[in-house]
Design brief:
Layout (H helix, E strand, L loop, with lengths): L3 H6 L1 H4 L14 E6 L1 H11 L7 E4 L12 E7 L5 H12 L3 E6 L2 H6 L2 E4 L10 H11 L5 H16 L2 H12 L3 E6 L4 H13 L6 E4 L8 H6 L6 E7 L5 H14 L3 E5 L5 H23 L7 H10 L1
Parallel strand pairs: 1-2, 1-3, 3-4, 4-5, 6-7, 6-8, 8-9
Helix pairs in contact: 3-6, 3-9, 7-12, 8-12, 9-12
Bound molecules: 5-phosphoarabinonic acid.
Length: about 300
Amino acid sequence: MGDYLEEIIDKVKQMDFKDSIDFSLKFKNIVIFGMGGSGIAGKIFQDLFTKFPVISIDSYEFPQYIDENTLFISISYSGNTEETIRATDMAIKKGAKVWAITSGGELSKMVKNVILIPKGLQPRSSIGYLLNPLLLGSGLADDDSLKEAKENIEKLNREHEEMKIIADEIYYGNKIPAIFGFPPYKYVAYRLKTQFNENSKILAYWSYFPELNHNDTMPLKSTYRKELFYFIALTYPNINEIYLKRLKITSEICDFNYKEVRAMGESLASQIYTSIHQGDLISYYLAKRRGVDPRDVNIIEELKRRLS
Ligand code: PA5
């Protein structure tokens, strides 16, 4: 097993993964279930696909409307996550059209339509395998956009000094990252929060525009020990100007500096994956500075064991 950086950098290969969910089936709504590093794929997707109602779930509470008109997509890297197995079982019993994205486990046995992905990775570093089947099947990505994503990830793999600098500024400044996202990629910002949690083993905060202007704006101005936070704004090319205007005015009124981390490329696939990749790199370098193993999730595993 090499250094975790290799696993992160290898994301570039995942841009060639072209298996996809069959969206030509008849359905009226889409429910995507997944936890943690697997569930993030559904969260990101739900804000992007607007042809049908989509909801992503990560709890024991299910919508009543799940039935034979539902396309239920179950995502679990291991295929053994308790919440995901339970939800999938319920969806099967309700007659939903069930698909799974997994590397194996129980899930691969209980679902007929399975997208099987390679084993041996951390769930969170297999994001291309987990998300491409949704983006490709729904038409939100195609060969060209994944090619653009791949080229831009390759660029980042060659040159990402800025990500190391951000990690250093967080580390030496003893800061807590606070990440601001922008629709339709607000869950990419949430993903970075979870990468700080799992890879760097630090607590982190996230929020998103314009909603944060109606709540976070108050403490942003006068919170207890504002100097503790390191603010990151995850922007992207062609972002609606209104968001940038809000960011600028908010930072002026509330008097905080932020680091802008901009996604690369024109296509949605390139923007999502480069934004994710930059965050993965920052969280990796922060883990290294902190002397923690970015791969280690032993507490999550112990929890799963004790609950089983
Ligand atoms: O990144 C991780 O290891 C976790 O967040 C897992 O993804 C989470 O515990 C769910 O497990 P799985 O992805 O195997 O369903």
